[in-house]
Amino acid sequence: MKKVAFYTLGCKLNFSETSTISRQFEEKGYLKVDFQDNPDIFIINTCSVTENADKKCKKIVREAKKISPNSYVTIIGCYAQLKPKEISEIAGVDAVLGAAEKFRLIELLDDFAAVQETKVLASEIQEATVFNNAYSINDRTRTFLKVQDGCNYGCAFCTIPLARGKSRSNTIESVVQSAHEIAATGVNEIVLTGVNIGDFGIVDGKRNERFADLVYALDKVEGINRLRISSIEPNLLTNEIISFAAQSKRFVPHFHVPLQSGSNTILRKMGRRYLRELYVDRVTKIKTLMPHACIGVDVIVGFPGETDELFLETYIFLNELDISYLHVFTYSERANTRAAEMDEVVPMKKRNERSKMLRILSEKKRRKFYTENLGKTFTVLFEEDVEDGKIHGFTENYIRVAAKYDPMLINELKVVTLDLINEKGNVEVLEPEMVFEKH
Ligand code: SF4
Q1: Is the model's pLDDT at 111 over the cut of 80?
Q2: How many CA atoms lie within 13 A of 196 on its CB side?
């Protein structure tokens, strides 16, 4: 039995795809093992957004070869699509597969392994037009279910459309079927994943279905306790979706909505499809219908042309907005993007200072959000996340909770009352005997 090990860099989408490819290998009789466990084959799923993607890729290949010198090393994923030739020249790499080919790895591998030279199979990204269904199954807590891939937006800083191609989706029928399969494994929470999931519904280049209808259909799937939307563009997060989530028992009150900048000047330069006024409107709508909702925000600092004044606009905008946490990205130039050609480049020192300021703001926001919710009752999904005698989990509105460790709590949904914020910044619940089953 041949042993295969996987390594995933990047986002939830990559994790869902690695998981699906690993199931293909297991179905073919391969034994899935840990990276350290002398595999015969390594499959490394790369990311183009990761800082120093090339260095990381080289390092992982080096480690793989140290563990199993005679192993077969395959590189897939976004970075493999963007730089197939460079990757094929890394010592120790045996095969590189692009976006349109990675799901065919299982059929191609035997032929590949029979030849000595490094195999490179990465078509032009325009050829990645087929949607490949994928979902992750690691434990019973949470599954990332891919519903959409690619993006038609073309923001000035972004390489994802180059690495993943045009927007394309699964059908509602097929997503619902996957949700039933996932429910049958006992998983409690599904996170809907994609590159631009609000744009769900394009099949073979034609818009056939709507994301809101997918939301309605999934809400009816018995056996899944929680559904979470991973991230959705503000212009695609409609009142219809927000209003539905507000009364749904399965869709949780947690929205992750990329903002990228609080300055309209920068938003226009980035080629984003909304202005800050629309963002305020989305936050207000969510908070009016769900005052306890958690709202996470992606923001990029140091985009070309972001002067001190424009950064301050973003800072003040975020400070005044009723949001719960930030994911802060420090802008860095990416080849073949419009932004990389722009002038008014912000010095790296300034980018880092701004990033630090927003990270501090994020902590302040998170603490405020947690404090507002103390004394209230929520449902926690406990995970196999144990530290210093405490077990952790997340509420439906994404508050990280700590309770006294009890192995019986793992993968269980429990109703708890939030008590206090501990020194690690997590919320502690009342004593475990106060933890009782959800009715
Ligand atoms: S919406 Fe913009 S940032 Fe997001 S994937 Fe598409 S091009 Fe990239």
Answers
A1: no
A2: 23
For ligand 1, atom 2, which residue shows the shortest CA distance? 155
342-360 confidence digits (pLDDT tens): 999 999 999 999 999 999 9
Residue nearest to atom 1 of ligand 1 (CA): 153
Residue 325 Cα to ligand 1 middle (Å): 20
Ligand 1: centre distance to CA 153 (Å): 6
- Whether 158 is in the pocket of ligand 1, judged by its Cβ within 6 Å, is yes
**Any ligand 1 atom below 6 A from CB of 232:** no
Residue 369 Cα to ligand 1 midpoint, Å, equals 28
The pair of structure tokens assigned to 95 is 């095969």
CATH class of 134-367: alpha beta
Question: What atom of ligand 1 comes closest to residue 195's alpha carbon?
Answer: 5
Q: Are 419 and 429 in contact (CB under 8 A)?
A: yes
Q: Is the pLDDT of residue 370 over 80?
A: yes
- Break the chain down into helix, strand, coil percent, rounded to 5: 35, 25, 40
Helices then strands, counting H and E runs in the chain, come out as 13, 23
Average pLDDT, the chain: 93
Residue 297, CB half-sphere, CA atoms under 13 Å: how many? Answer: 30
Q: What CATH architecture does domain 3-125 belong to? A: 3-Layer(aba) Sandwich (3.40)
Q: What's the gap in Å between 391 CA and the centre of ligand 1? A: 36
Task: Note if the pTM is more than 0.90.
Answer: yes
User: What is the CATH architecture assignment of 377-437?
Assistant: Beta Barrel (2.40)
**Domain boundaries defined on the chain:** 3-125, 134-367, 377-437
* 161/125 Cα distance (integer angstroms): 8
CB burial readout 181-216, b (16+ within 10 A) else e: ebbeeebbbbbbbbbbbbbbbbeeeeeebbbbebbb
